[in-house]
């Protein structure tokens, strides 16, 4: 299995294709030739998965920063993939920290969103009134997650954000973009 961790830039894409790092250029050319002979619109989908989401023993997510990466793999990367396919403009707004709407639309009123928000609660927070705790909403916790990944500028005294048992930092945004491009150590092409 080949593993890659590259930021999805035009330069890295050209280098990957030029050096045939994925050993799939011949297959892509054949597939492209097939598309050319078809009439109508066509699209290309890369068959890949994110290894840690499929019970891999290769990765250990024991510490808060690793748990943060695992959460990103399971709950944020799939949204990025979908947005990139369906609405590139909304994808750009989302990754540039201008719109948390896709994350909110998917999780704010769902059981999965409540489950996720519960794990993002800090010790001094609760969804209902409890002595010594601040009351927060599912929407607030999901917004805090979005902000920690795409909005917060990590400089000086602010070098990470802790949400429950998860840690996010200045690498979180590049991490999700790298994984979403299928050019990371988490990509598994052998399915």
Short description:
The chain is mainly alpha-helical. It has eight helices and six strands.
Overview of the molecule:
- The protein has 191 residues and is mostly helical.
- Helix content is 48%, strand content 7%.
- It contains eight helices and six strands, in the order ααβααααββαββαβ.
- Helix 3 (64-86) runs antiparallel to helix 4 (88-95), helix 3 (64-86) crosses helix 8 and helix 6 crosses helix 7 (138-151).
- Mean pLDDT is 76; it is low at 42-54.
Gap between N and C termini: 10 Å
What are the segments in which pLDDT stays under 50 over at least 5 consecutive residues?
42-54
- Average pLDDT, to the nearest integer? 76
Number of strands: 6
Helix content, binned percent:
40-55%
Helix/strand order, N-terminal first: HHEHHHHEEHEEHE
Output the radius of gyration: 19 Å
Q: Given the structure, what is the number of helices?
A: 8
Oligomer designation: single chain
Largest sheet: 2 strands, antiparallel
Strand sequence of the main sheet, in spatial order?
1-6
Structural class: mainly alpha
Q: Please state the overall shape, judged from the principal axes of the Cα atoms.
A: elongated
Query: How much β-strand is present in the residues?
Result: 5-15%
């Amino acid at each position: 299995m080949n593993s890659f961790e590259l930021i999805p830039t035009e330069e890295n894409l050209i280098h990957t294709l030029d050096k045939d790092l994925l050993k799939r250029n011949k297959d892509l050319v054949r597939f492209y030739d097939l598309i050319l002979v078809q009439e109508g619109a066509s699209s290309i989908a890369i068959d890949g998965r994110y290894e840690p989401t499929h019970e891999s023993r290769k990765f250990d997510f024991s510490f808060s920063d690793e748990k943060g990466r695992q959460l990103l793999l399971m709950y944020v990367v799939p949204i990025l993939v979908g947005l990139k396919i369906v609405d590139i403009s909304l994808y750009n707004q989302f990754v540039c920290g201008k719109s948390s709407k896709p994350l909110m639309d998917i999780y704010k009123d769902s059981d999965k969103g409540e489950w996720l928000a519960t794990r993002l609660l800090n010790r001094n927070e609760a969804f209902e009134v409890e002595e010594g705790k601040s009351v927060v909403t599912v929407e607030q916790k999901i917004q805090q997650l979005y902000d920690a990944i795409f909005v917060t500028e990590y400089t000086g005294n602010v070098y990470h954000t802790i949400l429950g048992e998860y840690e996010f930092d200045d690498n979180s945004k590049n991490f999700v973009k790298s994984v979403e491009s299928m050019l990371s150590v988490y990509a598994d092409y052998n399915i």
